[in-house]
Specification:
alpha+beta, Diaminopimelate Epimerase, Chain A, domain 1
């Protein structure tokens, strides 16, 4: 008889870019003791069925290999699951350093602790202005003030926060657009907030992502240029809501957020 305890793989679910449980963006985090194959990681991500599940493999003290999987594909960059990973490492008490380094498909990313927040150092992915591709605005159901294209996504500015909230995409049509997803954004009307957004990525198995760090690598340079501010407060207006601080630092973006652990368990397969 096999003792399941010898096979157990710890897994944690964390809500990122929030200080409140059951808000922000949920991410799974697996800290691996040994390498696992891609197929197994994809199956785990499908089983978790959250926007992304992160898989961490220790390298040396304070350094890790980090990969991210949606329920359907591996992705190149993910902010909320990186934030969740740093939160889990520090919360476990196994890693006392105030700075962590993650080796990823998007290069080396760092996380540091500051006043109860976690700062992530990510590459900026600025959008270039483009003509909207056929079907994009129709799929989103919006009229655009601006359309741009970043490395990953289309960026669509609309008139105001109410329009962002009211956006109701046709996900089947949006999935046919040649991009990871679409960001809909505007200046904020909420006091103390600079800009708001929502993010849709049905082609990657995520109709609406609740709080998207990587999308803010595009939003930060866009709104920094528009407002003349290097540091901004952002809210993502999904049903779960997300709260981020963003700052431009050269060609990098500092994404800051908080996180809450909501579930700890063990995988037995």
């Amino acid at each position: 008889m096999i003792d399941d305890r010898l096979m157990a793989q710890p897994i944690v679910q964390v809500d990122s870019f929030t200080s409140t449980a059951f808000a922000g963006n949920p991410a799974g985090v697996c800290l691996l003791d040994a390498p696992r194959d891609d197929g197994w990681m994809q199956l785990v991500a499908r089983e978790m069925n959250v926007a992304e599940t992160a898989f961490l493999q220790p390298r040396t003290a304070g350094e890790f290999d980090l990969r991210w999987f949606t329920p359907t594909v591996e992705v190149d960059l993910c902010g909320h699951a990186t934030l969740a990973s740093a939160h889990v490492l520090w919360e476990s008490g196994r890693f006392g350093a105030d700075a962590l380094r993650f080796h990823t498909r998007s290069g080396v990313l760092t996380a540091t602790r500051r006043d109860g927040w976690i700062d992530l150092d990510f590459p900026a992915t600025p959008a270039e202005p483009v003509s909207p591709p056929t079907g994009l605005l129709e799929a989103l159901g919006v009229t655009a003030r601006y359309v741009g294209r970043s490395r990953f996504d289309f960026l669509v500015e609309v008139d105001d926060e109410r329009t962002v909230l009211a956006t109701s995409p046709d996900f089947r049509k949006l999935a046919a657009i040649d991009a990871r997803g679409a960001i809909v954004t505007s200046l904020a009307s909420t006091p103390g907030v600079d800009f708001v957004s929502r993010f849709f990525a049905p082609a990657f198995g995520i109709d609406e992502d609740p709080a998207t760090g990587s999308a803010h690598c595009c939003l930060a340079p866009y709104w920094s240029a528009r407002t003349g501010k290097c540091e901004l407060i952002a809210h993502q207006l999904s049903a779960r809501r997300g709260e981020l601080r963003v700052a431009m630092v050269g060609d990098r973006v500092r994404l800051s957020g908080r996180a809450v652990t909501v579930l700890r368990g063990e995988l037995l397969a």
